[in-house]
Amino acid sequence: MKTVTIDRTFGSGGREVAERLAKMTGVPFFDNEIILKAAENFGVDVGVLKNNDEHYVGSLIYNLSMFGADGNFEASPVYRTYFAVSETVRRLRAEHDGGIFLGRCADVILDGEGPIVRAFIYSSSMERRVARTLKLEDVSEEKAETFIQNKDKQRRNYYQFFTDNKWGAPTNYDILLNTATVDYDECARLIAELAEN
Predict the structure, then answer these.
(1) CB count in 10 Å sphere of residue 141
(2) pTM of the model
(3) End-to-end CA distance of the chain
(4) 43 pLDDT above the threshold of 80
């Protein structure tokens, strides 16, 4: 089976699809393990990695505070996190001869490192996204939609900053699936079918 990367909008169930795909195919699934392995491999504090994982804001003020007056981007926590995570993604893919990778620019990081299927999971139903968020996050119903929008913005900014690609653009993926109309199991089946060809 080809390596699979999955990007997702917040509350769309992308993680659930990835878990079901892994169970269906027996292919290892990597999400939070990437952070733990990155910390272990590169000696970066787990807290620093978690604080900067898929959270790049991208504003001028943030850039100045993160990179300092000398503009040393490579010494910044954001860069160190991205470097540690990207190298860990490559190593995990090589060690397991593939895998299912959730977010973290894995589609671009693994480009050219063997056959790959790039999936984007979204939901056109904000109502469903809110319901899922309320189950998984400590957020009030009144603030859930804003919370979702902020999470999507963080993911989009992080992805676009490090890849120069547009997050969620159809031209960057092999398959886009709407969990408002296609259930998680069917999403996993469709990705698996694509990955087998």
Answers:
(1) 10
(2) 0.86
(3) 8
(4) no
